[in-house]
Amino acid sequence: MSSIKAFLFDLDGVIVDTAIYHYQAWRRLANELGFDISEEFNEQLKGVSRMESLDIILAHGGLTLPDEKKAELATQKNQWYLELVSRMTSEDILPGVANFFSQVRKANLLTALGSVSKNAPLILERIGMTEAFDAIIDGTKITKGKPDPEVFTKGAAELEVAPAECVVFEDAVAGVEAGKRGGMFVVGLGSPDVLTQADFIALSLDALTVDEVLTRFSN
Prior knowledge:
Elements: E1 6-9, H1 19-32, H2 39-42, H3 50-60, H4 67-85, H5 97-106, E2 110-114, H6 120-127, E3 135-137, H7 150-159, E4 166-170, H8 173-181, E5 185-189, E6 200-202, H9 210-218
Parallel strand pairs: 1-2, 1-4, 2-3, 4-5, 5-6
Helix pairs in contact: 1-4, 3-4
């Protein structure tokens, strides 16, 4: 059994919750196209890349558009989203995150961010957490979105650790699958009914300690 050397974290829903901002921007886009999307529908978009999300939304609205128009819409949605997240501060960090990261540092574990969002560096800067990560893998560094494991395997490679020495923290089904496909131990943050592939599930980082994670892994 390998020992754990690194913790890899998704951003949305784990460190901060920007889902509401994504939803507001996507809903505005859908409304301009003549239909609506619900918060329940928005759950399908968690952990999914921007263009894939747009395809899901267009299918929902029964629309087929040329790639050029789709690129234009995705850019517009991102501009609206950036207007919202640019107002974020450290107050937007989810409960328990600061305490958990303090424990991570005391345990001498490496950290990486594994987010498909190209806006991840901006968000980390706004909430003051850029320095909390030894490696940052975002949407600009990958060619495949989750559930492909690339975002996590690249994080492990940048930290110079083996996948089997990594724990992934994810709140989305696609992210949990990505971690498992990457050969990593995955802690799901959320509902056990949803994150069925995770090795271990907790409500949030606030409900976890580093020792508990390491104990679960060694078992």
